[in-house]
Amino acid sequence: MATRPNIAAQLLDRNRTQHPDKAAYLCGDDVLTHQALAADAARFANLLRARGVRPGDRVVLCLPDSFGAVKAFLGAMLLSACPTPVHAQLSPDDLKFVLQDCEAAALIAPEDSPAMEVARTVPGLRLALPCSMDGPWGLSGFSSECDAEAPQPEAPGFMLYSSGSTGRPKGVPHAQEDLLEPTRGWATEILGVGPRDVLFSASKLSFAYGLICSVSLPLAAGATAVLLSEKPGPVELFTAIVRHRPTLFFCVPTLYAMLLRAYDPGQGDDLSSLRLCYSAGEALPEGLCREWTRATGLELLDGIGSTEAFNLFLSNRPGAVRCGASGTPVPGFTVRIVDDAGADAPDGVPGELLIQGPGICRAYWKRPDKTAETMLPDGWLRTGDVYVREDGVYSHRGRKDDMLKVGAHFVSPVQVEEALRTHPAVLDCAVAALAVDGLVRPCAHVVPRPGFAADPQLAQDILRHARGLLPPQQCPVRVRFLDELPKTPTGKVQRFRLRQP
Length: 501
Description:
The chain has 13 helices and 24 strands. It has 501 residues and is α/β, with parallel strands linked by helices. The strands form six sheets. The chain has a nine-stranded mixed sheet with strand order 2-1-10-9-11-12-13-14-15, sandwiched between helices. A four-stranded parallel sheet has the order 4-3-5-6, sandwiched between helices.
């Protein structure tokens, strides 16, 4: 069997040779060059090797986005260990679950973080290594040259955990080679990423979208990426954009809505460096898409990917944005929309989206039941997303688990939410099932805008508004007011938490 290349070594060596003094990463006022990144990633690999970490071992990274997080990820890959980044604010219970589930050999986390306390309670964890924002402790004592290990056959090259929008997260292992798949069809043919670009992702490294945009794309192109260590709010995001002048901005709809509400060019919110804005992680509401372009003058491209694909497989194109739609298939991917019997659904009829393409995960980590449900024997992946195709363009209708069967009709929560958001009092909303006398009916969970009283009169007004826009089976029968919707760290609404018996 031919030796598989070490992808981290390829990327680091090429950029160290071609762009040694160029910024690989920007974080606050600090700069990390490609040459310095390659040196410290090698030091970290040597540190891990000296501490007994072996190829194939899972190394969990519970770190804020920082130079240290990127060095740790690439250093673990140089050793052909399996870096497994998780959100820095993961709850102790969820972190313990991940450490036990992936049978982690090592944890890398800030010294004073709760993660270090969790590490003491996990049998089998051999190493808990403190890490600063600049890198794991003890790097200076190791060589900046490293003999990279070739990836083992069938061993995971890196692993991510799904965001848990429908329940407990699942481990999604990928081969090292999958790190480069998004840099082909999506990055080159749609985004046109090149070495002069500066990429900024509000999504964190612990999620596929963030890892793609902050590691895969910039390192493959020899470009520069901006890292934001703190929680991404409007002030933090606008400050980073003004300071670092990115050319491509990647974000999720929830944050785009927050940015739009706070956007004030007169107060210095300068977006003139951006040539492209991209939205993924959840469906982009049509109204938000249009309003962003109207307010900023920038196109907002929507697309959809998944942790399992580690790629975007549907996307709008620059100059041909269709608000309210996810666009058309990304080069390299084939897609189908199927009914419950597995037959292809005709145009205009909703069904589950299936995809086939390079880099798709072949099995969940230790979850043969979920693997059998999702990864089909012929290479197709069930996304769990309901889509409809019209004139060759694909539009999202919600998650399959979220679809409501009202009478003889399937109701998409997304369509109902789009209508509700046109009411002036609705800041955010989600629709989930409510059982009324044993029958399923839509219930609207609404976050009201400031200045609107969450009272029965407003609820009735919202219901009347919906009845004027929607057919009877789609109209909510009740409005519940919430201070905020339950969401994953990536901004996806957890509708399963809203369902009511």
